[in-house]
Design brief:
With about 625 residues, the chain is an alpha/beta fold. The protein has helices at about 30-40, 80-90, 95-115, 145-165, 240-245, 275-280, 310-315, 330-345, 365-370, 370-380, 435-460, 465-480, 490-500, 510-525, 540-565, 610, 615-625, 625-635; strands at about 15-20, 20-25, 45-50, 65, 130, 140, 175-180, 180-190, 195-200, 205-210, 215, 250, 255-265, 285, 355, 390-400, 405, 420, 505, 570-575, 585-595, 595-605. The protein folds into four domains: about 15-60 and about 80-115 and about 145-255 and about 400-465, FAD/NAD(P)-binding domain, CATH 3.50.50; about 260-395, Flavocytochrome C3, Chain A, domain 1, CATH 3.90.700.10; about 475-605, Methane Monooxygenase Hydroxylase, Chain G, domain 1 (Up-down Bundle), CATH 1.20.58; about 605-635, no CATH class. It has a five-stranded parallel sheet, with helices on one face. A four-stranded mixed sheet has the order 1-10-9-8. The protein has a four-stranded antiparallel sheet with strand order 17-12-21-22, with helices on one face. Helix 3 (about 95-115) crosses helix 11 and helix 13 (about 490-500) runs parallel beside helix 15 (about 540-565). It binds flavin-adenine dinucleotide. Its cofactor is FAD.
């Protein structure tokens, strides 16, 4: 290895140059599905991944992928899935995305089996589907509680098969390269269109510039901006920030999902996810007094669908058509708030959570067969045998509903040639995502992003990157070595502390203002963050570069959370409880204006009469203004 890689001041020659038709940033489900589609369209593709290939969040997904295949309950269909998704998102969803998602998810799941996936089966040999919060029927296609592993394994296998098809290039992977352990730090843009990206190899610190007329962002979420999170180290909002800096917009960044059940003990594992499948398969939540408390927290809008007594709730598992669902399976925002309230009222568990009990309700064989990863996770990390004793759980930052504003049909952002799919995109889930809807979202819109990125590349001249812009990106990446400020870990901890204390599950206007002031005070410190040592294997330097992305996302979230003075889905304002129908018509759109974040209000597009007709007027009236749902009645008539 040449010694330049430890040099904090290399010259412009120290940059590896690559080119392709479609550059995919991120190798989770969305990125890999996009890459498959773009390659199938005949385009050359490069996939970049910050972590090891195969180690994206998608691989961690446990519960399953939601798709209305109707295998377990024949009453299920795309219209019911669409309704559930809109209800879960409290009707703020981009309705067209929710419609496309519900319609196309079954095909994307079946297609995966043609790529080699094998989902668990029903007794009659069809793909099995399990219950999950907010889904009216069993809908999650799954492989035990390791569904994401099967998804990633299959997509990787498909990529490898596509790498074998290019004899003319001489090198099998020439037209479908995967470059892992590489972080993209900047996008190159000219006259409103993307033309490439800049990054560095994490192992060596070597720089890379890739020219491409079409780029798909598939970088996942922002969880690492919070201390207690189910997200792993690489989720620092890079794609969100890259999009902003390139001129794209982010919508609804105030909506962050705190999953109700993360581990709370021991401290070293706090935040690690406890899958919702535990509740889907019969687990119930109890407080320190042994009370099954969720019956006390069923909101008015959900009373028709959720049982108000344990007998009916338990009967639902064997006879879902004649009984209402257990309240433990309310959408995640409701359950997380309920747990928060129990703990606050002094009825929490020993370590500040509540109890999740499946041991007293299902046999040990059932638990170890249905939830093998959970069994091992608790045994190894907490020395708890979940077949014999309850788990201690509490809310953990899990998913961001906000993200890059995209066109529903094409996944295109506002910047020409820039597409976004998966968790980095916004709109699909409205104010709250239903469990299982992310894996299906990333398959449906990953495919679309790949398809339309390939289409754009086909009609666009290969771009050229200028030496000056590459040198500027390189100088930005090297700045932490020349700075004389603070350690990046201390700054990340400070930012996490502000977000956790002031922008968490329950928010108040005064605290959000305080958060914005405290974040602003962090800005010059982040600009002056210092990296010590050389460029090879230097996680401190990597974090120093990630910090500015976390900062932009944190400010966008706090600004939007302050502006939206109502409570909806993953945004709860103690000083503005309840949903306001006027706010249901508003998306908050963040963009950069002269380097500063600016927020604008934008109308939520109205649903078509056909889609509105899928709901009872009595339900629409809980979310919409009278003019909105009455105009529907008039159109229907
Ligand atoms: C523990 C856990 C369990 C979950 N269970 C479920 C479930 O059962 N069902 C469900 O629907 N959802 C589930 N989710 C959510 C779901 O897994 C994620 O939302 C989804 O996988 C995101 O997929 P993605 O393709 O958008 O991004 P990811 O899978 O998160 O992949 C992002 C990729 O981008 C790369 N990347 C990031 N930044 C950069 C950069 N700057 N440069 C280059 N590469 C970059 C990363 O390295 C990674 O390869 C779960 C999430 C977690 C954390």
């Amino acid at each position: 290895m040449s010694d330049h890689r430890n040099d904090a001041n290399p010259g412009a020659a120290d940059v590896e140059h690559l080119a392709c038709d479609v550059l995919v940033i991120g190798a989770g489900g969305a990125g890999l599905r996009a890459a498959v589609e773009a390659r199938l369209a005949g385009k050359s593709v490069i996939v970049i991944s910050k972590s090891l290939f195969g180690k994206a969040h998608t691989v961690m997904a446990e519960g399953g992928a939601a798709a209305a295949m109707g295998n377990v309950n024949a009453n299920d269909n795309w219209q019911v899935h669409f309704r559930d998704t809109m209800r879960g998102g409290k009707f703020l969803n981009n309705y067209r995305m929710a419609e496309i998602h519900a319609q196309e998810a079954p095909d994307r799941i079946w297609e995966l089996e043609t790529y080699g996936a094998l989902f668990d089966r029903t007794a009659d040999g069809r793909i099995s589907q399990r219950n999950f919060g907010g889904h009216e029927y069993p809908r999650l296609a799954h492989v035990g509680d390791r569904t994401g592993l099967e998804l990633i394994r299959t997509l990787q296998q498909k990529l490898v098969s596509l790498q074998q098809d290019d004899e003319e290039a001489g090198e099998p992977a020439a037209k479908l390269q995967v470059i892992d352990e590489t972080t993209i730090t900047e996008l190159f843009v000219e006259q409103g269109a993307v033309k490439g990206a800049f990054g560095y190899r994490r192992g060596t610190g070597a720089f890379m510039a890739i020219s491409a007329p079409a780029i798909v962002l598939a970088t996942g979420g922002i969880g690492r901006s919070f201390k207690v999170t189910s997200n792993s180290w690489e989720y620092t909002g890079d794609g969100h920030a890259l999009a902003l800096r390139a001129g794209a917009s982010l919508i609804n960044m105030e909506f962050i999902q705190f999953h109700p059940t993360g581990m709370v003990w021991p401290p070293s594992v706090r935040g690690i996810l406890v899958t919702e499948s535990v509740r889907g398969d019969g687990g119930v939540l109890k407080n320190a007094e042994g009370k099954r408390f969720m019956f006390d927290y069923i909101p008015e809008v959900f009373k028709a669908q959720y049982a108000d007594n344990p007998e009916e709730a338990d009967r639902w598992y064997t006879d879902p058509d004649a009984n209402r669902r257990p309240p433990e399976l309310l959408p995640r925002d409701e359950v997380a708030r309920a747990i928060n309230s129990e703990v606050k009222a002094g009825r929490g568990s020993e370590h500040g959570g509540v109890y999740l009990d499946i041991a007293s309700r299902r046999s040990a064989e059932y638990i170890t067969e249905r939830l093998p990863s959970m069994y091992h996770q608790f045994k190894e990390l907490a020395d708890v045998d979940i077949t014999a004793e309850p788990m201690e759980v509490g809310p953990t930052c899990h998913y961001i509903m906000g993200g890059v504003e995209v066109d529903a049909e094409t996944a295109a952002s506002k910047v020409t040639g820039l597409y976004a799919a998966g968790e980095v995109s916004g709109g699909m889930h409205g104010s709250n995502r239903l469990g299982g809807n992310s894996l299906s979202d990333l398959l449906v819109f990953g495919k679309r992003a790949g398809e339309f990125a390939a289409e754009h590349a086909a009609v666009t001249e290969p771009p050229k990157l200028g030496d000056d812009e590459i040198a500027a990106a390189q100088a930005d990446a090297l700045r932490p070595f020349a700075n004389d400020g603070e350690n990046p870990y201390a700054l990340q901890a400070a930012m996490q502390e502000v977000n956790g204390r002031l922008v968490g599950i329950i928010r108040r206007a005064g605290e959000l203002e305080e958060a914005l002031t405290e974040l602003a005070a962090l800005k010059p410190r982040i600009d002056n963050v210092t990296a010590a040592g050389g460029r090879a294997y230097n996680p401190g330097w990597h974090l120093a570069l990630d910090l500015r992305n976390m900062y932009l996302c944190s400010v966008a979230t706090a600004m939007a959370a302050l502006e939206r003075d109502e409570s909806r889905g993953g945004h709860t304002r103690e000083d503005a409880p309840g949903m306001d129908p006027q706010w249901r018509r508003v998306n908050l759109v963040a963009s950069l204006d002269g380097g500063e974040l600016a927020l604008a209000r934008q109308d939520v597009p109205s649903m078509t009469p056909e889609l509105l007709g899928l709901f009872e007027t009595s339900e629409l009236s809980k979310y919409m203004t009278p003019e909105e749902y009455r105009s529907t009645e008039a159109e229907d008539a």
